[in-house]
Design goal:
alpha/beta; Spore Coat Polysaccharide Biosynthesis Protein SpsA, Chain A; UDP N-Acetylglucosamine Acyltransferase, domain 1; 6-stranded parallel β-sheet; 8 helices; 20% helix
């Protein structure tokens, strides 16, 4: 069995963060989202992985390398333009050959990984196995309707009037029969080759398409709200580990991880939260569900439920920061003396929310 991870696309829903990085490399709990998928696939015993790349190819290759760090072998496959999930499979057909394969969307995180999914495939031996979960807004996802025996009756991509609340999770398992199905479908109204159309074609062709329910949580980190939600659920499982230096005036509540070389002074740390390597944190309150990546400087600020990426500086901010994401090398500098004023350098498609008090 092989695996195909999709790490192309433009990440438009995460701009401005994705103007300068691949969306699959945005960190969740200080680890690039893509790494969760690689580790999950390796844990399932799959060693031969193809990664679909596009405009951010060089960045993804620099982060992942040849895959040996994850115990796998990685082949990079260029997709000139993102024309749908089925098009990505078509692009990778030479790599995939006639073997069954897992297709994994690189900005997804599954609590229990893909091992139970692979085990279900080996037990059932279907032509396609799709992962499903119940959602509150099925119109935002690929939608599945099941037969009484659990097989797939129908699929629809982001229907205006969903016939069920079962959404397709961004993980699929196919045999080589999917290639013939993709060859017979046509672009959708979005001018993309939809994987839901390919699966529907497999059903029409008489293939056996089964479903498997997600037992734990699943997160698609495609927008800021979901990214923060993923950060939260991953940190909920954090085991505290102090490697850096927390001085006597530091108060630690709950699970807190501090990386090597980091120094924390006169600060309240309320976990779960993670602080990376080489950070300096002074006179702060760092609240729960916050991840602070390497080489950050935080001083005289309060922050919680947030993601702070590498090399950020947040200083002298008079009001608490919540539900925020700071890209690498961001600087937020408050002004404590009077008269107080705001001064911004704001990139395209940024979002800023200011309290009126």
């Amino acid at each position: 069995m092989k695996a195909l991870i999709l790490s192309g696309g433009k990440g438009t829903r995460l701009r401005p963060l994705t103007y300068t990085r691949a969306k699959q490399l945005i960190p969740v709990a200080n680890k690039p989202t893509l790494f969760y998928g690689l580790e999950s696939i390796a844990a399932a015993g799959v060693r031969d992985i193809g990664i679909i790349v596009g405009e951010t190819r060089d960045e993804v290759m620099a982060a992942v390398g040849d895959g040996s760090h994850f115990g796998v072998q990685v082949t990079y496959i260029d997709q000139p333009e993102p024309r749908g999930l089925a098009h990505a499979v078509q692009t990778a057909q030479n790599f995939l050959g006639q073997e069954p394969f897992i297709m994994y969307l690189g900005d997804n995180i599954l609590r229990d990984g893909v091992k139970p999914f692979v085990e279900a495939y080996h037990a059932k031996q279907p032509d396609a196995l799709i992962l499903l979960t119940q959602v509150d807004k099925p119109e935002l996802f690929g939608n599945a309707v099941l037969n009484p025996d659990g097989s797939i009756r129908a699929l629809e991509e982001k229907p205006k009037q969903p016939k069920s609340n079962l959404a397709l999770v961004g993980v699929y398992l196919f045999t080589a029969k999917v290639h013939a199905a993709i060859a017979r479908i046509r672009p959708s109204g979005r001018n993309e080759l939809e994987i839901t159309d390919a699966i529907s074609q497999m059903i029409t062709d008489g293939c056996r398409v089964e479903s498997h329910r997600v037992a734990g949580w699943w997160k698609d980190t495609g927008n800021a709200e979901d990214l923060l939600s993923a950060n939260r659920v991953v940190l909920e499982r954090l085991q505290g580990h102090i490697q850096g230096q927390a001085e006597d005036a530091v108060k630690i509540e709950g699970p807190v991880s501090i990386g090597p070389g980091s120094i924390v002074r006169r600060t309240v740390l309320r976990g779960p939260l993670v602080i990376g390597q080489g950070c300096v944190i002074e006179d702060c309150f760092i609240g729960p569900f916050t991840s602070v990546d390497d080489k950050c400087l935080l001083s005289h600020c309060e922050i919680e439920h947030s993601i702070v990426m590498k090399h950020c500086q947040i200083k002298q901010v008079g009001q608490r920061i919540e539900n925020s994401i700071f890209g690498e090398h961001s600087v937020v500098q408050g002004q404590m003396q009077l008269p107080r004023s705001h001064c911004f350098v704001v990139g395209d498609r940024s979002q800023i929310s200011l309290s009126q008090s």
